[in-house]
Amino acid sequence: MNKIVLSTLLVLGMTGAAFAQATTTTTTEAPPMAPEFATVDADASGGVTLEEAQVAWPDLTAEAFAAADTDANGELSAEEYGLLASGANTPATAN
């Protein structure tokens, strides 16, 4: 009788641990992704202006945009936008 009770408790204990692990891993959500370059480039000019970028990031400041615009031409190229979107050049927000 003791062996049956002990076996049952052991199985229940292992099942609870497996359930806890499964629920922990399935509740993790992926971070939101930035819109694709072509989506943000509303006029399809091949560059993203400050106004277009602010649609994706409403709190994007002119200073943060200028920092991402490494060639200082007033628009973000696909490469510059990619760096901004990946967080390598995270947009600053106005407080």
Can you walk me through this structure?
The chain folds into two domains: 30 residues; 50 residues, no CATH class. The protein has five helices and no strands. The chain starts with a helix and ends in a 9-residue tail after the last helix.
Fraction of residues in helix: 40-55%
Distance between the termini: 68 Å
Query: Could you give the count of β-strands?
Result: 0
Reported for the largest beta sheet, the result is: none
Range of strand content: under 5%
Average pLDDT rating: 75
The helix/strand series, from N terminus to C terminus, equals HHHHH
Radius of gyration: 25 Å
The shape is elongated
Q: Number of folding domains?
A: 2
Uncertain residue segments: 22-31, 91-95
What are the SSEs and their pairings?
Blueprint: H1 2-26, H2 37-40, H3 50-56, H4 62-68, H5 78-86
